[in-house]
Each structure stands twice: as C-alpha cells, then as structure tokens.
Specification:
The protein is globular. Helix content is about 25%, strand content about 25%. It is an alpha+beta fold and about 425 residues long. Strand 16 and strand 17 form a beta hairpin.
C-alpha cells in the first residue's frame, strides 16, 4: 500500500462532523489522567524512537523537568513530541488520529470517495510506505521504570475483529490489514489492540467515532499545545473549570505578563452573543476586565500574544501531574515577554509536578531561557536538546551550559 499525495483541503468535513464531535477528537483536553506508568516524580529521562516518521532511529537523553528542543526546519522536533504523546496514550487510536489530523495527512487520490474521512497511516512510518510487517517502536525510561510501544502492520482475519469494529462503511471497506499496537510497562500487564484499516491502508473516522460513542476514555497523561494554541471551544471549556477557583490566579499572572491592568477573566455563557453566521473569529467566548475600563473587553482585543499565554496557562493546569508538549512555544510572543513566560512555565511545572517538552526556532526564545537559568533552581531543572536531521541522538545542554552558550555568543540551534 503506497501513500497518496497530501491534500490542501481540510481533513474534516464540517457537514458530516459536528463541532462538538470534532472537539472530542482532541484527547489531550478531554481525557482522564488516571492511567500513568511514568509518574512525574520519576520523569522521562530518555526517549528512543525507531522507524517513526522521519527517524530510522533517534534518542533524546538527559531530559529534565523543562526541555526545549531546537533544530532546523524538518529536523523532526514535532515528531518527538508526537512520539511522547502516543507512547503515554498506550497507542490509543484517537491519539493516532489527532497526530495525523494536526498535519492534514489525509489519504488523497484521484478517485477520492465522496466526503469520507480517511487519514494516511503510512506517514507514521519511516519511509512512508505500508507493507506487511513494517513497524515502529517507541520507548521511554527513567531510573525506575520503562514503557514500550510497538506498532506493526499485520494481516487481520475477519474473525479477529468484532462486527462493530469491522463495519467501517460501504465507501471504505476493510482491507484485510490492521495496525497491531502492543504496549508494555515495567509494572503493568501487556496491552494489545488491533486497529482495522481500509483497503487503502487508511485510518477511518467511523472507527474513531465508535470509540467516542462507547465513551471509552483514552489512557492519556500528555497535553499537546499546537502552534495555533487552543481553540475557542477548548479555552472556554477549561476556563469554565478554573475561574473562581485557586487556578484563576495563575491565569491572571500569565495574562499580566503582557497587560498588567487585567483584573478578571471570564468565559461567556454558551449561546451568549450567538451569530447566525456562526462563531465570529477564533478568539471568541472569553472576556476580560481591565483597570480603568468600565466595560468588559473581548480577549481578542488584546492580540494573539494574550491568547497564547492564556492557552499555555490553561494547558499547564490541565497537565498537572503529567507531561506538557508545546509546539513552537514562542508563537505570537514578543521577545520582551519570553523570560517571564519561561519563569511562569518553570514555576508552574515545579508546583504542579509537570514535565515540559517544547520546541522553537527562535534565538530570542532560547536566550530568554538562558537568562532564567541564571537562577540555580531553574538551571538544575532545564535542558536544551539540539535535534539534527540525520543524527542518531540529540546534543543535550544542561542549564549551566545554556548560560555559558548565551554569554559567549554560541549558537545552540
């Protein structure tokens, strides 16, 4: 089975999938966090991947509480975040869907079958080709425990699938192959599941939807923040949990990095200000109270930087006792606020017992991190991981080395 060309069109047809259903496909913000093997007090120290996306093999080592991945475009930084997300979810199909959907990796051929949604699973395999027996392996470890995920394309007899799993749909019949996922932890029994694939080797939305309808909770201990931050629906949902609670103080601290006069923040009740033309803009649903302004203001008035900091703060709270993955952490932020952003991230991660892995291309971003590492407490908890295309492992810089590199004008990216 070979890969089709990538589409430029959206991967989901809104006429077939409701906003609510699409939001439930984002497991990083809807899942229970009860199933964890690598506890935050024994954080991931080493991550190894084999035959995953652009990597034949690669290792991230010497990881600490806060880790910044740097490197050139297309060096595979985001792929490493996805590997952590998938491994901690035990290979749940919904996390596989999310990984492919974020990149728009849809099966796309000249004979495309109507509005059916089918994602191109081969993109997860090194070489981007699906053959019986091809596999990828993900492994995370620390001093006391290890967990391992193996994904392999296998022949899947009809008898091995339940009728409910088998019924993809008439447009995309079962192709006789499945993705066999085997997860094993040091202190847990092995878990094995098989995901049925279409005859084109695609992951079909109907299979994911059935998981949603069964209300099965993904095994999830990683929160993923993309370059576009959180959607309005995600922000409003999370904000509704935390406003008028102790966590609200953290949210206001984050927003005051940019605007000191913000006094309060609140979600707008569902349906308030509804437009017959749908949601207006991508920053709806949240208002703020600013000192010396009589009326509340839409948060979008303050620009993208405020929204990014709100998303980061909400994600930090959501990731309590887990792992936070942030793609292009500096997106939308001016260099003058990045040092305060890093102090917020480190302080919150330490207080809520979170491990953070983030990516950047920005010199300002890593130099701001270097400035915070002058504090010995932050330095001891921080690494920069240089990811180079074609290399087999990252170059790890500890906190003290990051400070020296910045002071002497060395380039770590």
């Amino acid at each position: 089975m070979s890969c089709g060309r990538l589409p430029e069109a959206p991967i989901l047809d809104a006429s077939r999938t409701s906003t609510a259903a699409q939001s439930r496909l984002r497991p990083a913000f809807s899942a229970s966090q009860e199933h964890r093997v690598l506890r935050p007090h024994a954080m991931i120290r080493t991550l190894r991947v084999e035959n995953f996306r652009g990597y034949p093999e690669f290792e991230l080592g010497s990881l600490q509480r806060v880790n910044l991945l740097v490197g050139s475009n297309n060096s595979g930084k985001t792929s490493l975040l996805e590997a952590v997300e998938l491994l901690l979810a035990h290979g749940d199909a919904r996390n596989i869907w999310s990984s492919l959907a974020r990149r728009g990796e849809r099966v796309w051929e000249d004979d495309d079958r109507g509005n059916s949604v089918e994602l191109d699973l081969c993109r997860l395999f090194h070489g981007y080709e699906l053959k019986r027996g091809c596999s990828f392996n993900l492994r995370a470890s620390n001093d006391s425990s290890e967990q391992f995920l193996r994904a392999e394309l296998v022949d899947t007899p009809l008898d091995d699938l339940t009728q409910r799993e088998l019924a993809l749909n008439a447009e995309m019949p079962f192709g006789g192959a499945g993705l066999r996922l085997s997860w094993k932890g040091s202190k847990a029994e092995e878990e094995i599941t098989t995901i049925p694939l279409s005859e084109r080797g695609g992951l079909v939305f109907d299979f994911i939807r059935r998981r949603m309808l069964r209300r099965e909770e993904p095994r999830q201990s990683a929160t993923f923040v993309t370059t576009s931050s959180l959607s309005s629906e995600e922000v409003v949902s999370l904000l509704s949990r935390y406003v008028l609670n102790p966590e609200e103080g953290l949210l206001l601290t984050a927003l005051r990095i940019i605007e000191r006069d913000i006094e309060r923040i609140a979600p707008i009740p569902s349906g308030a200000g509804h437009s017959p033309f749908g949601n207006i803009g991508g920053r709806g649903g949240v208002v703020i109270k600013v000192r010396n302004h009589q009326n509340r203001l839409p948060i979008g008035t303050m620009g993208d930087g405020i929204w990014r900091l709100l998303s980061l703060a909400l994600a930090l709270i959501r990731a309590s006792n887990g792992v936070l993955l942030i793609d292009e952490i500096d997106t939308g932020l001016h260099y003058t606020v990045m040092e305060d952003m890093w102090k917020l991230v480190h302080g919150t991660a330490k207080r809520l017992d979170i491990q953070v892995l983030a990516t950047t291309h920005s010199s300002d971003c890593w130099k701001a991190l270097a400035a915070t590492c002058r504090d010995p407490n932050i330095s001891a908890d921080t690494t920069i991981q240089h990811v180079e295309k074609g290399a087999k492992r990252s170059r790890s810089f500890a906190g003290k080395e990051i400070v020296i590199a910045a002071e002497r004008g060395f380039e770590v990216r």
